[in-house]
Known about the structure:
By secondary structure, this protein is of the alpha/beta class. Helices cover 26% and strands 20% of the residues. The longest helix is centred in the first third of the chain and has 18 residues, at 16-33.
Amino acid sequence: MHLDVRQLRDFYYRSQLGRAAQKGVRDQVVARWGNTQGLTLAGYGFAVPLLRPFLGKAERIIGLMPGPQGVMHWPADGPNHSVLCDEARWPLANDSVDRLVLMHGLETSDHPMALLDEVHRVLAPRGRALMVVPSRGGLWARSDATPFGFGRPYSRGQLERLLNESGFICSGATSALFFPPSDRRFWLRSARGIEKMGHRWRLQRFAGVLMVEAMRRDTAAPRGLPQTARRPLRVLEGVPISGAQPAWRTGTRPPVEDPANLHR
């Protein structure tokens, strides 16, 4: 179930808790990607708050927003970089994206395998995709006050298994949002310090958001049965030899009745 784009916009751009969450996740993206000069960046779901620091630095930035969610003009103070799309049909060429981030896209998808197939298609051979999902053991997945309380939360093992099945190699993982999802002034003022403490002490189990980075595995075996294992359905074939068997045993003949008894 996708949230409406207006709800996501109001949370990240018009609430203090949303701005704090945006800051906590975005800092990890910037630290992991570093210099993006000359690269093509894309975000799917509602990932545009994480792409803001790369405007004017990357060669191209595209914000992909799923149809059930809706789309908005982004950034508000410049030319539009966002586009409405189907989760399994992106208006991007094969091997065209160097860095890709998904936020509020994978956990709300009705067809996560089809979505990851599209990620695999558009990602460059040496590109990297970053999955941002609610952590199953975190407080943020248990609160309906934030967008991370909707959809399907993941553990690290579940997410890595899904990525491996979709043809990716997990190259790293981190976490974010160690402070509770509360709009009280004390927690908002302490958010930055709590984030630093959570990363320093490696308290991933208490984080609200899980971030797993993956690279494309081009040698991945296709899903489904191999061609040699497939067999046509016998119901579509003719039956050259009848499978019916006689009522008597092999090597014996049925008793012959006396014709005179047939008229009795």
